[in-house]
Specification:
This protein is α+β, with helices and mostly antiparallel strands. The protein is built from 5 helices and 13 strands. The protein has 2 domains: about 70 residues, Gyrase A, domain 2, CATH 3.30.1360.40; about 150 residues, Cyclophilin-like (Cyclophilin, Beta Barrel), CATH 2.40.100. It starts with a strand and ends with a strand.
Length: about 230
């Protein structure tokens, strides 16, 4: 049986430079190869999937190697957008904020201040549709994931897990520590681009009250509260 996928891996730590290299190579693979159904990007990898089985694996591998070494990664044009998301850190949503703040020996206000001052880079999107893997969490907020995940993490939950912060696009099981909630929908399967952000974009957060959170939720166009900066 012939495979229909090829995995490319980089033996180095994730970084902004590596991210741009992955995105640039992904774009060029899509342009130079026919029959590709999907390319899935990770922190240090690209998984290329073809619609049909690969019957000429050696030729494909050689072509990928030639393409990689022919590209000029020193002059990659960085095209990205910055998104500023509203987050409500009220105790109604922030069910783990008090525990987290006590464990890392910072006040709740300090945690919120540090969390909203950082700019986060979108590295890739998974494990749920619209779940943004964000790098850039201040080390003062690092806190381990829960030993026993919740079975019903709410939609829009903004959480901290280890060295990362993230947003749950839908209700799902989850082991991260919830410190707030955003009323902005992260994934809409009915749109041409289901997720407003893409890898390479940056994200920051701004605090809102619980009344503002409710107002945005009941607004007919919640994405109008999503502040985009190019």
């Amino acid at each position: 049986m012939h495979p229909n996928m090829i995995l490319l891996e980089w033996q180095q730590e994730p970084s902004s430079g590596l991210l741009q290299e992955l995105l640039f190579l992904k774009k060029n693979v899509e342009e130079h190869f026919n029959g590709i159904s999907q390319i899935t990007q990770g922190y240090c990898s690209l998984l290329i999937q073809w619609k049909d089985a690969i019957t000429n694996l050696a030729d494909i591998k050689n072509k990928l190697i030639f393409l990689y070494w022919s590209l000029d990664f020193t002059s990659i044009p960085e095209k990205s957008k910055h998104w500023n998301l509203p987050v409500c850190y009220d105790k109604f949503f922030a069910i783990d904020l008090e525990l987290l703040s006590s464990k890392i020996k910072l006040s709740k206000d300090a945690v919120i201040s540090i969390h909203t001052q950082s700019i986060y880079k979108v590295y890739f999107i998974g494990f749920l549709p619209g779940f943004l893997y964000l790098e850039g969490l201040n080390s003062r907020l690092f806190f381990p994931r829960k030993e026993s995940p919740r079975m019903d993490t709410p939609k829009g939950a903004v959480a901290i897990g280890g060295k990362q912060t993230g947003i749950y696009p839908n209700q799902s099981p989850g082991g991260w520590n919830i410190i707030g909630n955003t009323p902005i929908p992260l994934f809409d399967p009915n749109k041409k681009n289901p997720c407003f952000a893409v890898p390479g974009d940056t994200v920051s957060f701004y605090p809102i009250t619980i009344e503002e959170h409710q107002l945005i939720l009941t607004n007919g166009n919640p994405l109008s509260y999503l502040k985009e900066k190019k």
